[in-house]
Amino acid sequence: MDFNKIWNIFCKICLIFVILIVFNSLLGDILFRLKYSFPQVSATTTRQINTSKEPIQINLGNTKYIKAYGEKGLYALQPQAQYSISGLTVTKNTNFWFRDIMRNKFDDICLMDLGIVWGDLANDKKKLYKHWKFKSYKTLGQSRRLEWRTKAPHNSPWTLNYVSSHISHTHLIPANRNVMAGLLKIKKNDIIKLDGYLVDIYTDKNELIAKTSLSRKDTDPTSRGSGACEDMYVKQVQIGNKIYK
Predict the structure, then answer these.
(1) Interatomic CA distance for residues 200 and 83, integer angstroms
(2) How far apart, in Å, are the Cα atoms of 71 and each of 98, 105, 127, 160, 245?
(3) Beta bridge partners of 114
(4) Which of 74, 69, 65, 62 is nearest to 203 (CA)?
(5) Whether the Cβ atoms of residue 92 and residue 114 lie closer than 8 Å to each other
(6) Which residues of 105-122 are buried (b: 16+ CB within 10 A; e: fewer)?
(7) Nearest alpha carbon to residue 143 among 228, 72, 70
(8) Count of Cβ atoms closer than 10 Å to residue 149 Cβ
């Protein structure tokens, strides 16, 4: 068998493999979204969401673990703080790279990421996006990150310190299917409120997966949240006047 024939066979096998990966990824994403379609509104409220205040955090002592199911595995969540955050959604990410292939345990239990701002940043969207750009993504190294960059550093009405202390990259663990379906309804620029717990995440065999940040002012990978991200077990989500729980 000559080299060209071997190479052609190899290329065809690679092409079939890539097609199968892409098909599996698309199918997995479709099934994921179908699973969490059609959320039921649990309640409505006339109380407007206050985006000017800081997130409310009540640190907890030793608490019982919460049993939680990922898409495939079973996990134990240790609540570290009761937590409520209100703000403007600047990013939303559910694209975690080939859902059924390049997915780690963190992806399996934390089903969605939101970038949320509050305070002066949430008061004027036009001014915010004029001066700052936000992006939530997953890296090739399996890390899930939020980046914010200034477009006009000399004209920004907010310092980098103010922005970094008034933005949260929150990894979300839904308490149930309806909460997840409600979370998926969130769009960029929605005013939202999330209630639940900041949690450390373990497997059902007590292997540590991730620790949550407990501060809005930590910024580096050596922080408790390994990059200052909050891991949140969400019991209730409010979008505008609609509540899902």
Answers:
(1) 13
(2) 14, 10, 39, 37, 19
(3) 92, 170
(4) 74
(5) yes
(6) bbbbbbbbbbbbbbbbbb
(7) 228
(8) 11
SS (H, E, C) the chain: CCHHHHHHHHHHHHHHHHHHHHHHHHHHHHHHHHHCCCCCCCEECCCCCCCCCCCEEEECCCCCCEEEECCCCEEEEEEEEEEEEEEEEEEEECCCCCCCCCCCHHHHHCCEEEEEECHHHHCCHHHHHHHEEEEEEECCCCCEEEEEEECCCCCCCCCHHHHHCCEEEEEEEECCHHHHHHHHCCCCCCEEEEEEEEEEEEECCCCEEECCCCCCCCCCCCCCCCCCCEEEEEEEEEECCEEEC
- Residues ≥6 apart with Cβ < 8 Å to 243: 41, 42, 43, 44, 45, 236, 237
| The overall pTM is greater than 0.70 | yes
Hey, what are 155's tokens? 């004209």
| Alpha carbon distance 171, 93 (integer Å) | 10
* Rounded Cα–Cα distance for residues 80 and 121 (Å): 27
pLDDT, position 177: 94
Our CA angle for 238, 241, 243, nearest 5°, is 40
pLDDT 10s digits, 88-103: 999 998 875 555 566 7
